[in-house]
Design goal:
55% helix, 255 residues, mainly alpha, 0% strand, 13 helices
Length: 255
């Protein structure tokens, strides 16, 4: 039932096929740290401040101290003490700063960064609908939700209805038998589910349905006939159910 719920849910979205199936991905990895004592890594002999200042900050410690005395840019708390420099900025300076933000953060995160560094006035409207509208205008995440949830589509009717009807019948039968009072899987069942999740979603569905018939967990003729018919359709590569499950990944299980 869990697998059928997974398949029917993904049928409602446009799942893109894998561009490079079967090809392993290679990536370079950094060399691990040398052997050290437990807790935070530290070398046996500390390199001293000279190594840090020479590589990261400046050639000398004195220049580093001068940088602290005359910092470049504005501090986080300077936005609350509107200095003459910040007030007198020209439009070209603001545009240049915005271009740098877009370069470093991207357009979406640059707008969020600009909003976070904007002074907020003491304005608290009592209208709840107005508050919701202003919040949605500032923090619109429609682009992120579209990428996250993919694009919705109309599910394939026959495959969708077949799995939903079988799910409904098995749900009623499990409640009648009292199976809904149990939770989790035995070690053997979980091992079989892990093996089934290494293939396609059609293979996983057929594997589970075949196990149901073998163990005779369901004895209602209406349910067994539906399962038998669905297994026969899964054995045909060009069937409606295989077309619907072609790009849907299997439900993963781990030990």
């Amino acid at each position: 039932m869990q697998i059928m719920a997974h398949l029917t849910e993904l049928m409602k979205y446009d799942v893109k096929p894998n561009q490079n199936p079967g090809k392993p991905s290679y990536s370079s990895t950094q060399r691990p740290t040398s052997t050290h004592k437990p807790a935070i890594y530290a070398p046996d002999i500390p390199p001293g401040p000279e190594a840090y200042f020479s590589k990261v900050l400046s050639p000398s410690y004195e220049e580093y101290v001068k940088r602290l005395e005359n910092p470049i840019g504005t501090n986080y708390f300077d936005r609350y003490s509107l200095t003459s420099t910040a007030v007198g900025r020209t439009d070209s300076a603001r545009n240049l700063e915005r271009e740098n933000q877009d370069l470093y953060f991207g357009s979406n995160f640059a707008r969020l960064y600009e909003l976070a560094n904007t002074l907020e006035y003491d304005y608290n409207p009592k209208d709840v609908d107005l508050q919701v509208q202003e919040f949605s205008e500032k923090y619109d995440d429609s682009d992120f939700r579209f990428e996250l949830l993919r694009q919705k589509k109309v599910p394939p009717t026959k495959a969708y209805v077949t799995l939903l009807s079988l799910y409904d019948l098995m749900n009623k039968e499990s409640k009648r038998l009292g199976l809904n009072k149990f939770q989790g899987y035995s070690e053997k069942v979980l091992s079989n589910l892990v093996d089934s999740s290494t293939g396609t979603s059609a293979f996983q569905l057929r594997f589970v349905l075949d196990k149901i018939l073998q163990r005779q967990e369901v004895k209602k003729p209406e349910i067994t006939s539906k399962i038998t018919k669905l297994i026969q359709d899964l054995d045909i590569d060009s069937s409606y159910i295989n077309d619907a499950l072609r790009y849907i990944p299997p439900l993963p299980f781990t030990l």
